[in-house]
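Write out the 3D structure for:
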Amino acid sequence: MSNQDIKAKETTKDSKYIQQHLANERTFLAWLRTAISIIGVGFLVTNLHFTMRATLSPLGDQLATIIGILSVGVGIVTIIVSAVAYVRKIEAINSQTFRPAVISMVLLGVFVIIISLIFGTYFFII
């Protein structure tokens, strides 16, 4: 056996928990898709609002702008939080000291609820 064959067969720390690492990657990608969706909804509402602008009120203008800004902000925060959680989970998986990220998930949930309430207010007003 050559030296290269021996190196190829060595088990790394990450390869011991390969299923957990792959699940961590899938979760990270799911959070990225969620962030893109949140941002997309903000753009959609804002674009639709300003397309129909002639029939809407100034308060509707302000709410549409707030929805757009909050959606982009929450999307960016979601990407940052998910990236940090992904990196932290890599080490937690390898050291078998995993702890769920309760605070970040609750905060993201609260942000989504706030945006949903603003959406509801927006659609009620227009």
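Helices lie at 3-9, 18-51, 58-95, 102-125.
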